[in-house]
Amino acid sequence: KDQNIFVYLNFKSKKLKSKKPYLYNLLVLNIGVLFISTSGVLGRYIALPPPISIWFRSLIAILILLLYCRYKKFTFKIEWKKYGLAVFCSGFLMALHWITYFFALQWSNVAIGMLSLFTYPIITVFLEPLFLPVKLQKRHLFLGILILFGIYFLVPDFNIQNTSTQGLLIGLFSAVSYSLRNIILKKSNAMGNESVQMIYQLAVVIILLLPVHWIYPNIDIRSQWPYLLILGIFTTAIGHTLFLGSFSHFRISTVSIISSIQPLFGVLLGIFFLSEIPDLKSMLGGALILSTVVIESRSSKPDK
After folding, report:
1. Per-residue pLDDT tens digits for 138-160
2. pTM of the complete model
3. What gap in Å lies between CA 277 and CA 259, rounded to an integer?
């Protein structure tokens, strides 16, 4: 009898320990999502051409991450023969995603810009099995459809002449770029620490976007520095590092669907800072998206 009690207590102890890392990783993922969601308000508010904003965003973020990695004594070595192409492609896709996303925000508003981007969980669900050894699950199909209905309630009437519709379309292009970038990183996640990965991607973005200083000459950024610093430090350096680190603990499609709470964070920030108040239809769409986050958070728990 005493032996049975010991086995039971040992089982309960292991069960509690297995839950703590999951809850901790889920909390870290959501904090990263919250920081990333500030990009909606900042992308809409910063009065600079998107390529210029993204270049300075990347420069600030890479400096912060370099200091952090030196402090933590992370190694910067990666197997370039094995991961060099993945570093370049992920950096290129990240630059493409950020620029088109900022154009989507400037052409429409925070809600449309962010929610057009958040078709990427649906895109990821279909693309992931083509690149990674995972199977398409019925649950993700259902949640993807639910997100699609949520977005339907938030977008304007489809009219190609409408700038909001144009913002929606370029936001969809941004979503494809973002999905492919995440899949590449998931596939090459063993290349090194997530902060180091982010540094190399940012370096690619900075190099690729150097010509924008000749395309947009005489741009005065002095009044924009406070917002660029927030964008570079909190949104990019901290937010994306936490988000990238979650790839080691969750399936990429799971991360994609959980992070769909970003538009809700973005809409709330838009109400507070930009006075962009969504209507009842928009709130219904947001509620549908939030429901997918709750369902996926519960469904993606590890086996008991």
Report:
1. 777 787 788 778 777 766 666 77
2. 0.81
3. 22
